[in-house]
Known about the structure:
The protein is an alpha+beta fold. It folds into two domains: 8-351, 4-Layer Sandwich (Double-stranded beta-helix); 365-456, no CATH class. Helices cover 21% and strands 17% of the residues. It has helices at residues 59-64, 68-82, 95-107, 145-153, 203-208, 212-218, 229-237, 289-305, 367-370, 410-420, and strands at 17-18, 21-22, 44-45, 52-54, 84-87, 141-144, 181-190, 198-202, 222-224, 258-260, 262-264, 271-273, 283-284, 310-313, 320-324, 328-332, 344-351, 399-402, 422-426. Strands 3-4-5-15-7-17-6 form a seven-stranded mixed beta sheet. Strand 3 and strand 4 form a beta hairpin. 39% of the residues are buried. Bound molecules: fe (ii) ion (FE2). Residues 171, 173, 330 line the site of fe (ii) ion (FE2).
Amino acid sequence: MPSVTRNGSNGASNGQEDHGILTSCPSCPTPLKYSGSLDYLPYFEITPIIGREYPTVKVTDILKAPNAEQQIRDFAIIISERGVVFFRDQYDLNIADQKKFCDLVGTLSGRPEENGLHVHPIYRDPGNLTLPDGTTDENIYVINSEAQKKIYKTMGNRIATEPRDLAREWHSDSTFETVPSDFSFLKMEETPPHGGDTLWCSGYEIYDRISPSFRSYLETLTATCAQPVFKSAAQAGGYEVMSPRGSPLNVGDAFAPHHPVVRTNRVTGWKSIFAGAGLHVTRIDGLYSHEDQMIREYILRQVTRSHDCIARMKWTKNAAAVWNNSCVWHAATPDTHLVEGNRVGVRASSIGEVPYLDPKSTDFNDCKECCDADYTISRSQRGDGATRWLDEPTVHFGNIAPSNQLQISATERNRIQKEHEAICFEMEAAGILQEYPCVVVRGICDYADSHKNKGW
Ligand SMILES: [Fe+2]
């Protein structure tokens, strides 16, 4: 059986290894706890699974607040739990403050102190785009759809003969670095009337949708994330790639680190699929090529078949998104060539920690937050040979919340419970209630959280 490749230079700053994968993050050994400092801000969730928008927040106000550090740390936690957070109308946010906020969400959430903002490897390339004011900044990556169109016009072989596979757009930022990005902050300076949306997909939830036995196997794997294009571009342009790039470990021009397929998010302590799919993931280590292809296609298919795990941003001028690359993939929608109007964005990225998988880290189920283990009654405590005949059941009277889908989120369960004073959920009448008004009467025999399973 082929062996899994050792995790290269990643060993420099983390703890022990298991299957060649580091198992801890010394700079943030335990998950962080939200302090409540953002509770005064209105927000709405983009979907039950991923994304949150704070429609009134101005990042500049947060930076100026007397308890700015506490609030930014709480933002780092919310971003890491929800995957991505949207802000609107950041018209007064300049590049310096955007960089400052991006840097602070990293440092205040336990990023190794030697790391900083990412420097794009080919910042020296004369073909690079400038900022809207004509300047450049080594920590800011500029996107510009009009410039992109011109580049494509010079590339005759990009003329499509068949529809493009947009699944190829999914990626996590800077995965080609030994120490990839934790947080990215993209602000859209200019937007076309429509088009150019960005999507984010929850790696936590994709992990949770894989069977426990297959998850266990994936947790033993690493993947090579090779991006040779930077070295060849630098050679062709006659310049050196930038080095270091936001971390003392991000040096040189090899761009072929090995990252774990499943990683722990240092902020939440939850497991997420990481280097299992995406633009920069080029090979699952130690497998035969058809096995490598099969696993990467399988994970990518989980992403493209699970649109309930996806948050979509319809950009407006001066809108911004901040996300945690450890637990989400993102993908741009390349449809701006169909409309008049430019799409100009500026992105900063913080460099996080060397990816690791802590065997003690938990799934993205929220039960640990919402369920009190003190209420657990072990079956064995019912006495030897206990049956339901011998048990003394408790009868509860109250509202039953009929569900039209599996209810596997404890947070969502608690929200509905509060709003409707529901004492339980039931989905036996799913699909019938709308057609045939009826009352569900049934003994409750199941969970309404991520513990739900057939075996029970
Ligand atoms: Fe990206």
